From TrEMBL:
It comes from the Bacteria. Pfam families: HTH_1, LysR_substrate. This is LysR family transcriptional regulator, nitrogen assimilation regulatory protein. Keywords: DNA-binding, Transcription, Transcription regulation. Residues 1-58 form the HTH lysR-type domain. One of its GO terms (cellular component) is cytosol. One of its GO terms (molecular function) is DNA binding. The keyword Transcription applies. InterPro entries: HTH-type_LysR_regulators, LysR_HTH_N, LysR_subst-bd, WH-like_DNA-bd_sf, WH_DNA-bd_sf. The lineage of its organism: Bacteria, Pseudomonadati, Pseudomonadota, Alphaproteobacteria, Hyphomicrobiales.
Length: 309
């Protein structure tokens, strides 16, 4: 089985037409048909069904197509890594990040990366940490930034920072960053919480005393922006990483206070079985550098950075 044969086969997959596939491959139709036939003979099964108007993939052909797509993607990554290791980032970069980091960190880093390397095709995803990690595991993205509260088999992780969780309330509540609140004070509050399963939801539930019962059922909201909007109107409280509410706090839309004794770890992760491209390396360096500047300038006021190498 040769890569060129697989490339010919993928032209067939993408066109479902032998003639069109041969044109794309820049070979004669008999030559392309012969290579597909050799593949079928080697694998001992039919890959395509010939029809009056084109072809259709057999179940075996569809399985092979799925494998070849992953193989070709790795081939391109290997090429890009070798060519770009000591040069400017090139190719594409797919990133997924937790919602909480958008306003304080991710948007600025993405904008800076694009300004420096506009030739790189950027694709940005967002989600809760459990979904961000899953996108990396399933190869939908190349690099992920999320809160590390789960298994990490098959992943390379690098600490970005840890930060404090804060209690959110309306400005009238008068919460202050120099006055931490104990977790026991959460019991008497009406809370807005993220849905389960969710790492933040699990941490908040662990903060409550074992026998505690909330005064009222929590309001369940998926996105941080809606949580902040609800809290700012008064009567409701929530718990988020400081990064998730930094902008609303600096605009005076909410008041916040640290929740005593709890931190929230952020990591940058890549897959162990994929080459680390120049674009991934440079984006990671920009993330770490920007986080250090935010902490040094007193902007990310709850951030605790890992030791520098």
């Amino acid at each position: 089985m040769k890569i060129r044969q697989l490339e010919y086969f993928m032209h067939v997959v993408n066109t479902l037409n032998i003639t069109h596939a041969a044109e794309r491959a820049n070979v004669s139709q008999p030559a392309l048909s012969r290579q597909v036939q050799l593949l079928e003979e080697e694998l001992g099964t039919r890959l395509v069904d010939r029809r009056p108007r084109g072809v259709a993939l057999t179940p075996a052909g569809q399985r092979l197509a799925d494998h070849v797509r992953a193989l070709m993607q790795n081939v391109e990554l290997i090429k890009e890594d070798i060519i770009a290791a000591e040069t400017m980032p090139a190719g594409s970069l797919r990133i997924s990040s937790a919602y909480s980091l958008r306003g304080l960190l991710i948007a600025d880093v993405v904008a800076e990366f694009h300004r420096l390397y506009p030739q790189v095709n950027l694709e940005i995803h967002e989600g809760v940490s459990i979904n961000v990690r899953e996108e990396l595991v399933t190869r939908h993205v190349d690099l992920a930034i999320y809160s590390d509260h789960g298994a990490s088999r098959g992943l390379n992780r690098q600490a970005l920072c840890s930060e404090g969780l804060v209690l959110l309330a309306s400005p009238a509540a008068g919460l202050r960053m120099d006055a931490p609140v104990p977790s026991t004070s959460l019991v008497g509050l009406d809370l807005v919480l993220t849905p389960s399963p969710n790492g933040l939801r699990r941490v908040v539930e662990d903060l409550l005393p074992p026998s505690a019962t909330l005064r009222n059922p929590p309001v369940i909201v998926e996105t941080n922006s809606i949580i902040v909007d609800l809290v700012s109107r008064g009567g409701l409280h929530s718990i988020l990483p400081y990064s998730a509410c930094h902008q609303a706090y600096t605009r005076g839309e909410i008041s916040i206070a640290p929740v005593a004794g709890v931190t929230w770890p952020w990591v940058i992760a890549t897959s162990r079985d994929r080459p680390r491209t120049a674009a991934m390396r440079v984006f990671t360096d920009l993330l770490l550098g920007h986080a250090r500047r935010l902490a040094a300038d007193g902007v990310w006021i709850t951030a605790e950075l890992p030791p520098e190498d």
